[in-house]
Amino acid sequence: MTLQIGIAGITGRMGQLLSEEVAAAGAVVAGGIGRSGDAEALFSASEVVIDFTNALTAERHAELAARTGRPLVMGSSGLSPAQEAAVAAAARSVPIVYAANFAPGVNLLFALAERMAAALPPEQYDAEIVEMHHRQKVDAPSGTAIGLGRAVARGRGRTLEEVGMESGRDGHTGPRGTGPIGFATLRGGQVVGEHTLLFAAGSEHISLTHRSFDRRVYATGAVRAAQWVIVQPPGLYDMKHVLGMA
User: Fold this and answer.
1) Would residue 137 show up in a list of annotated catalytic residues for this protein?
2) How much is the pTM?
3) 100 labelled ligand-binding
4) Has 103 been labeled as part of a binding site?
5) Which InterPro entries does the UniProt entry name for this protein (predicted)?
6) Could you tell me which residues come within 8 angstroms of residue 158 by beta carbon, excluding any fewer than 6 positions away?
7) Is 12 labeled as ligand-binding?
């Protein structure tokens, strides 16, 4: 039977790419909504829903996924801790893939970041993350940058909240602290997405960089996640599970 995929955010740039990639994967677009629309009807008509809207709809869509029993692939960024908690609560009833980034290369970057952080002690290697996106992006740092920070913290046996974030440095800030992860945000033009993780020590610097040139890579990854999550048990997943890296 052909997989019926619903798209929340179908009128945006990503929504159009998702529609094309759903068809390319041999699935069918069951329906879609834009900034407004009947989300409950969309979930009811679909076997799985891909959500690329925004953080404000995250709780509502997660709750609908749990209530209708429809798996959810969520790519919205900038979720607050409370919104992330709501998504995690819904995932106890239905499988949800919630990812900071759906590009395979970025998820490999997350894995490398964690391994490198485990090998490079924070007392000697400061971790700094620099990201740049198009001028229309409304949240900062990006979800992918936060994901990188979490990977670094995880590699060091802690959470990002525990190690702390240093961002928006301005004026006389004093010397850099030992342990916190630095974030720098750039916005301009139509950059799809660039992320660099830098480990800086007194004797060497090591950097990893990922550049996205086409948003289609996110759409392709999201459709792949939708095909994967439809047969999974309830739980909160990310792209490392979809890619077989978990």
Assistant:
1) yes
2) 0.85
3) yes
4) no
5) DapB_C (IPR022663), DapB_N (IPR000846), DapB_N_CS (IPR022664), DHDPR_bac (IPR023940), NAD(P)-bd_dom_sf (IPR036291)
6) none
7) yes
